[in-house]
Amino acid sequence: MFETAELGAKISREAFDAAAGKLRLDLLALQEKLRQADFPVIVLFAGVDGAGKTETVNLINEWLDPHWIVTRAYEAPSQEEGERPSFWRYWRDLPKCGQIGLFLSGWYSRPVLQHVYGEISTAEFDYRLDHIKTFERLLADDGALILKFWMHLDKKGQKKRLTALEADPLQAWKVTKKDWRNWKRYESFIATAEHAIRRTDTSHARWAIVDGSDERFRSLTVLQTLHDALERQLDLRAHKRPAVKTAKPALLKASVLSALDMTQTVDKNSYEQELQEARADLALLAREAHKRGISSVALFEGWDAAGKGGAIRRVAAALDARHRQVVPVAAPTDEEKAHHYLWRFWRHLPRAGHMLIYDRSWYGRLLVERVEGFARPEEWERAYAEINDFEDQLLHHGMVLAKFWLHITPEEQYKRFAERDAVAYKKWKLTDEDWRNRSKWDAYEAAVHEMVERTSSAAAPWDLIEGNDKNFARIKIIRSLADRLRQRLART
Amino acid sequence: MFETAELGAKISREAFDAAAGKLRLDLLALQEKLRQADFPVIVLFAGVDGAGKTETVNLINEWLDPHWIVTRAYEAPSQEEGERPSFWRYWRDLPKCGQIGLFLSGWYSRPVLQHVYGEISTAEFDYRLDHIKTFERLLADDGALILKFWMHLDKKGQKKRLTALEADPLQAWKVTKKDWRNWKRYESFIATAEHAIRRTDTSHARWAIVDGSDERFRSLTVLQTLHDALERQLDLRAHKRPAVKTAKPALLKASVLSALDMTQTVDKNSYEQELQEARADLALLAREAHKRGISSVALFEGWDAAGKGGAIRRVAAALDARHRQVVPVAAPTDEEKAHHYLWRFWRHLPRAGHMLIYDRSWYGRLLVERVEGFARPEEWERAYAEINDFEDQLLHHGMVLAKFWLHITPEEQYKRFAERDAVAYKKWKLTDEDWRNRSKWDAYEAAVHEMVERTSSAAAPWDLIEGNDKNFARIKIIRSLADRLRQRLART
Question: Which helix (DSSP H) or strand (DSSP E) does residue A227 occupy?
Fold first, then answer.
């Protein structure tokens, strides 16, 4: 989930200045419209200390007309607040129609910290998240625009930031002992935050995860997101059909895919040996999983010609044919179309001890159906939460879930297409659609980026596979799948 | 919650035959339309054993074209089902577009029974309910029409029913040992069911609570509800604005209000004595609650001229003026209108040890705003869940919540209005609006009936007060409020 915010995205001063002037004017114009509108805007800032939450809130106050902004930050509840239900202090502070409310350490802060420090159980934590969800839906049903920003730094980045602040006599006061205490619990904090974000990332109150390491980048990202969402909501409330935005994250030049080292290869001489060892390892683990009745789902997505089929055949070959099944996912049948889009995946889940391998999967909703317009925006936007919930059910049942994205560069894809075109017996593999999809590379890449951001989690992470070298990819996939089984078997 | 289904509603054979013929033809016509439509219908039957779940499902199959009906009933999971996530068997059985799926012992059944028998914790129960909610929303977002019927019998009624079935040689097989075992846990079963219904009664998947004691009544109620919902959904999906239905439950002649014994009075000679004793009791308990920091909310709703003001003054007089506050709720101010309708109630919640008395309350949303059209149907339909969640937060915080509906008969109201008109110093109390509201008595009564059905719970029940005799009402209110405090104080 946080992979996308650890790419070290940066914006130069020149680029920032070039974008900022217009954005600021546009935002002021939108705020002017908002004042006449029939809804409030609620913006929450959460995230890692030092990732620029306060600075961003200050910047918004500076850029916009502060008369119509309400800024609130919360400490531990006062005695007066402690005497009321825990939401009382937020209830009172909600912005009214036409206002923008900026919330620091809002309703997520205490449940998250209390869970990190073991003061509340996971059940109580889930109860509170459920209430938060209900609360946000109530506000959204009433028309409120809700934006939630997770300002992120990785562990090293946070240490660097806190140390730098401490070294600056003018800013040293910003770093407290509590910040360092929290830093020591970084892993637990991040795991808890991930759980909270997944449970509360709904289509009417979305989380945006922002790389906080570069001030200019994070500022522009937040303000651009606010701008786009506000513009859209004003259109919607005025019963205008909002313009469909390009799927590409506005400022992000680097996607999670562009961060992969695509030069990785495996030595041709050692390939057979490594493959054999990896397969033997996987076979052993799969047999043990079968014995213990643990079932698995492995799904494969990737660019056309990225080598999904070949990789799947290598995986399948390592497994007992009686205990695994490969399901190729094509366009839905008439019967499948008459059901919810998840129905065709619900139907054939593996029984105990079996492994199901999907060649393409439910993620089609967020990839081809999104980019090609087969699903309406409200449909695929809903799908993130629907898929997260579906996968939670699989994990809750004790299943293993492995998700692979096979990546190749556009150049490599072109080479492979050309080769197919040239080689008669490979020609059937190449259709006009393949060439068409290629022209939408950028849109697909942005969709993959967002898919990883919003559906990758510690329990069901996306494995991004560098696939320019097919052999390298195959070995990495088999090893990764084996590791996932190993982890699951170690748990019970 | 179940008060409304324990009124012993009956329909005569003649009335049934008169209604059934047309209803059946209308339903068949709707089913014909549904076959061409782009959504499925999902109907769940839950409730007390013996309340006619199976019989109703059979009747639907008899009345409609069974080719387009899927009927499913579930036992304990088979081995094959146990090997998959618990929802797998429902996932597979979902009806497709154009079909009606009838589910007996569906997804609520196992969590409820497991909770009743202590096999799962309340936290796990809540987790499952949360998942059910998410699942139903996913289906509804996709267009599905979801109806959930709770077929009800009170404890005595169930015993009578099971005994009667056992006595009939042709039907004795229907009663199993399990039924009697469940019957012994009736109270626990009902409490668990109430919790489940409250948590999952959403505007897109509503529960209907049906009095199961009379076969003709329950059959017509279910089929009429199915008819109305199907007609509405067909209109909605065809982008037609559905006709606004009258608020009155179609077949219910008797409301919870009509079941009250309005002849109750208190002896004039003993009134002062009884009042003094009740007030002394309340005062003592309120002092203890103050000492312990337990806060309370008491809210009053009722017909115009039902005597709310007088009753509130009597309650307030028993309490320490420093520790209680009376808040009269009038039409919202401009500022209040610019917020969510609950905002004005969120603002002034009592601090620890204090009691807040609302003269009218958030229930205005479900009463005057509904009946007068100040709130749109989708707004007040949402409000049941919103209010239940809000009150849950108060209870979760440990507050006492008392809700009073002051009832008078139309004749008594007329008498009081006429009296006000005649007595100069009471004249200001009577406005044109009072006379206007009077003409909508039936619509208000239906709204009150549904409000009680959907927002009364064991932890925050509605107290329906027989108010034709003002003195009787005042004493009953003070005693009831005292009892509520007493129960809360006994808990810790």
Answer: helix A215-237
